[in-house]
Task: inverse folding
């Protein structure tokens, strides 16, 4: 039965587009941060460290799959943001400062929402006029490959 579930999950991920995979990674990182907070509250240090490590692996993966050649300024800014998040996760693991969980989670939620709204044609209220927005073709890699 476990093998059947694993095969189903593998096929489900294999059929996803790049945008959905990235959103899924952000969702997982956010979930692991929530679990890390719970483990911290329950004083389970090993489980806490494991959850933080899982978030670290996700953010590191997102960082290493950035295409700096094609992604231009967006890739550079995402790279800087991912580097910041990685450093914060190291600090979190050593200090167990709960406010870092909140800060990292807020950033990841913001990034996730940005990816979810990418290409929807219904941007959230911004100062940028729709005609000035760059058009994004989701059939081609944006700035990351997952």
Result:
């Amino acid at each position: 039965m476990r093998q059947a579930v694993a095969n189903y999950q593998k096929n489900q991920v294999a059929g996803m587009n790049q945008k959905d995979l990235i959103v899924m990674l952000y969702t997982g990182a956010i979930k692991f941060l929530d679990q890390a907070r719970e483990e911290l509250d329950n004083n389970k240090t090993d489980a806490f460290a494991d959850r933080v490590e899982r978030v670290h692996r996700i953010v590191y993966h997102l960082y290493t799959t950035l295409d700096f050649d094609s992604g231009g300024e967006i890739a550079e800014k995402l790279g800087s943001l991912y580097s910041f998040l990685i450093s914060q996760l190291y600090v979190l693991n050593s200090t167990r400062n709960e406010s870092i969980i909140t800060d990292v989670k807020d950033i990841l939620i913001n990034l996730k929402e940005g990816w979810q709204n990418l290409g929807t044609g219904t941007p959230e209220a911004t100062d940028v006029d729709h005609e000035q927005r760059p058009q994004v073709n989701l059939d081609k890699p944006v700035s990351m490959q997952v």
